[in-house]
Amino acid sequence: MINPVLHRQRFGLSLLFTLVLPLLAQANEPLPSWNDGATKKSIIEFVQAVTEQGSKHFVKPAERIAVFDNDGTLWGEQPAYFELLFAFDEVKRTAAQHPEWKTTQPFKAVLENDHAALAAAGTEGLLKIVGATHSGMTTEAFDDYVKTWLSQARHPKTGKPYTEMIFQPMLEMLDYLRSQNFKTYIVSGGDTGFMRAFAEKIYGIPPEQVIGTTFITTFQFKDGKASILRTPKLAHNDDGAGKPVSIDAVIGRRPILAFGNSDGDLQMLQWTAAGPGKRLMGLVHHTDGKREWAYDRQSHIGRLDMALDEAKTRGWTVVDMASDWRRVYPFDPPSTEQVQ
Amino acid sequence: MINPVLHRQRFGLSLLFTLVLPLLAQANEPLPSWNDGATKKSIIEFVQAVTEQGSKHFVKPAERIAVFDNDGTLWGEQPAYFELLFAFDEVKRTAAQHPEWKTTQPFKAVLENDHAALAAAGTEGLLKIVGATHSGMTTEAFDDYVKTWLSQARHPKTGKPYTEMIFQPMLEMLDYLRSQNFKTYIVSGGDTGFMRAFAEKIYGIPPEQVIGTTFITTFQFKDGKASILRTPKLAHNDDGAGKPVSIDAVIGRRPILAFGNSDGDLQMLQWTAAGPGKRLMGLVHHTDGKREWAYDRQSHIGRLDMALDEAKTRGWTVVDMASDWRRVYPFDPPSTEQVQ
Asked: By its UniProt entry, which InterPro entries does this protein fall under (chains A, B) (predicted)?
């Protein structure tokens, strides 16, 4: 580590001020992948208002809770929720242990890549697949399965690992908030254990700040060995009204910032908005069919309809991905930048 | 705030070294209310082993999770769990809104201070009382009720507010751990909302680090107003095997230190002990009938029987309150100190 005092003495004050400080200022400019405009301004103005000493909107660091949906807000969700693609791959990986799946729907459909049969199985079928692939092992074994899959699986469109299909502007927002002593949480419909397997590494969000859908687990102590087993029984569905409920149950404080991208985030935003003082409610609007995907009111995945209306009525921040984001993914070369 | 550079210039270096540094050293001596001996030594040696750079037992700060039971571990639990005394007082406070309680057990017993009828109602009766007094209001209103009660109620034996019936040596342990970058959690059988109403103020443990028994809550959005309502339906009983389950669900990391005082903490200690590397499992043994209470294997409250056996077998730290603690409560005058 460089001792700043020695460093200053060696190079002289003038050099420090002419060379180093401007570089630092540039490095500290928040949200570099956001185009200048009303959206970026609304985020920076909010953060300054609640963090500057003496501001009438000042919020104590301990109360600077920021919550983010994951699918479609921090990483992609097309052509299907990534966790569902994990579940399909797990069915194939473990098929030998379940010979009955060859003749039982919806598992047969997964094994045969039969999209029509899978569609016919509907949400109930998908839940069966998630239940079967997310249970019957310890929480630590499940964590291993997810990590192994993430290290090998590739996104069907980009060919990138799913952990790189994350939104660079949102990573910068997480960093910016944490630099201002916000505590950043994920509050999302994904399985908590699934999200914990990557959230710390790719978002800098530790396991204890990941809130999601949960299944009943049981404690076992056998032959001096303690473990926690996952069962397929749903404990909490962290979507819609389930989000403010889990925020209250796990955090016990009302967030002052909430970001989502779909109607499943509406109640989380309403709950955030209902508190006293200044708040920021935001939605990522997928408007960029060229660099990412364009979808909203009619989409089966990440439908954004009622929440978009309420955002417009109440003046919430709506991110127009196509025009507000200079870059979408960390791996995007500068040439993918949109012309303003 | 004193600017340390100016301060040093004004008073001179010699004064700093002769006067200030020894005072700082004394102030930093951990666990002043613990008598010197094997128990205090086991705590300090554990903390040093997992925090000193280069130690073979070194644990990264992010993984320094420490969990504490509350009733009987951080504060008292005699002559009855304090939360139960709150529930009895709430029955009396709200009796006018429930005229049927005058003739319905177990509420009638509470209103008439009929200890025999209350005992006859058993655990089921107590759960009814807790359910009735802990539901039907928003989580924020419940927080207000608990805070109001805590500000007015007094312990039947000491005449002190319940928030002063806390164990000074354990407060010092919490402080010591946090000074070494541990994250301190409560994992206890009390209602999460009840404990959050005081945990930050008296223990320095923020709401998001309080894990307890929970009841189902529901989100309501009416006339543009968002709220979360408490129902009497149990969601999670945070006792026994429920403790490692909630630790895994909420924290998602295995603690490296766990402290309890009863058989209800056994599984939490087993789960903590089952991880790799150095760990500290501890029990507060209530052996001090003079300054506090003496109870263990036969007690209906905080029964310590199987966990005491397992602690002895496995070499866990057992705190002998009478001989290990120089002082019990923060309000104890020095004259209450035990003679060694």
From this structure: HAD-like_SerB (IPR050582), HAD-like_sf (IPR036412), HAD_sf (IPR023214)
